[in-house]
Amino acid sequence: MNLAPDHFGLVVIALFMGRYNHTIDPKGRLSIPSKYREILGDEFVVSRGMDGCLFVYADEEWKVFEAKLASLPLINQEARQFARFFLSGAQYVTVDKQGRILMPQDLREFAGLEKDVVLAGTGSRIEIWSLEKWNANSSQVDINAISQNMVGLGLTI
């Protein structure tokens, strides 16, 4: 998570939230919302994600995630596969003067990104979905059933 001092000198955790609909142009460029760019900066990481989407991390948050992956036991096959999935599918991207990134072709193919996409803030990262996958995934979510399981993970409201 991005940590930034506020105007009183207190450290504030900058979390990604909100949802934005955008399109990828024929050259593979995607506009990044200004609210997200304020946290991400001019260069950040896009990686394969889970559930058929892409994950976007600010550089410092990516380094935290990389360190966690590096700490996994090399002798464990699932740990190697997990690290390989994320690290081999990650790339740094740079924001151009118009606030766009060139989305790598292999990542567009992985997530099925062709034209209409959704950028969704999920706390420490952003997820990029094809609109079709986003709608299909969202229609299957039963938040009431899921909320019952969150108590076991220590989340209470």
TL;DR?
This protein has 157 residues and is α+β, with helices and mostly antiparallel strands. The protein has helices spanning 34-40, 59-70, 77-88, 105-111, 131-139, 143-150; strands spanning 2-5, 11-14, 19-23, 29-31, 43-48, 54-58, 90-94, 100-102, 116-121, 126-130.
Describe this structure in words.
- The mean pLDDT is 89.
- The longest helix has 12 residues.
- The chain is built from 6 helices and 10 strands.
- Strands 3-9-10-6-5-7 form a 6-stranded antiparallel β-sheet. Strands 1-2 form a two-stranded antiparallel sheet.
- A hairpin with a 5-residue loop joins strand 1 and strand 2.
- 35% of the residues lie in helices and 29% in strands.
- It starts with a strand and ends in a 7-residue tail after the last helix.
- The radius of gyration is 17 Å and the shape is globular.
- It is an alpha+beta fold.
Present the secondary structure layout.
Layout: E1 2-5, E2 11-14, E3 19-23, E4 29-31, H1 34-40, E5 43-48, E6 54-58, H2 59-70, H3 77-88, E7 90-94, E8 100-102, H4 105-111, E9 116-121, E10 126-130, H5 131-139, H6 143-150
Antiparallel strand pairs: 1-2, 3-9, 4-8, 5-6, 5-7, 6-10, 9-10
